[in-house]
# Entry
Amino acid sequence: MTIYIALLRGINVGGHNKIKMAELRSSLEQLRLQNIKTYIQSGNILFESSEPEEILQKKIHNKIEEDFGISSSVIIRTAEELQQIVNQSPFSDQMISEASASSKGECLHVALLEAVPSEVNSDKLLPYINEKELCVINGRDVYLLFYDSIRNSKLANNLKKLEVPATVRNWKTITKLSSMVEEFNYKQNK
# Structure
């Protein structure tokens, strides 16, 4: 079985698309997902399955729509892919520290994409990169570093130009999910 992380877009944000995590876990158990765990209310789900990503993505999307009436993009990563995201951060500790000192809120984020964006669409983000808003596209992941804030960021607001479904998580959430995977692996190997 593979350990997966499903990240839902736009769940429990600004009072919209409300889903209680206990109800979400119960709903997803009907899909025969194993060892389901959630983290915070924004739709971060850790689980095991022997099915491939594409099938799981459709099943989870359809189940959420059926049970909750919400059409949410479902972005999936394996535990290994999540660990690569953590290990391959393109920003130095110094850059992150400097951004953190001046940022209003979290400074480092990752936009997780459903698919690799085309080069043409990736180039559409270039005009929005500046000394206060940086990004590096690495396959299906976009690392974002903000020296001010993600709120009202022209770079973050133009991620849609990649023309690929995406959801954004701050670094704290990414690293917490990674540690949950490690805890899960530890318990499984005992």
Remarks:
- The mean pLDDT is 92.
- The domain at 87-170 is CATH 3.30.70 (Alpha-Beta Plaits).
- The first strand starts at residue 2 and ends at 8.
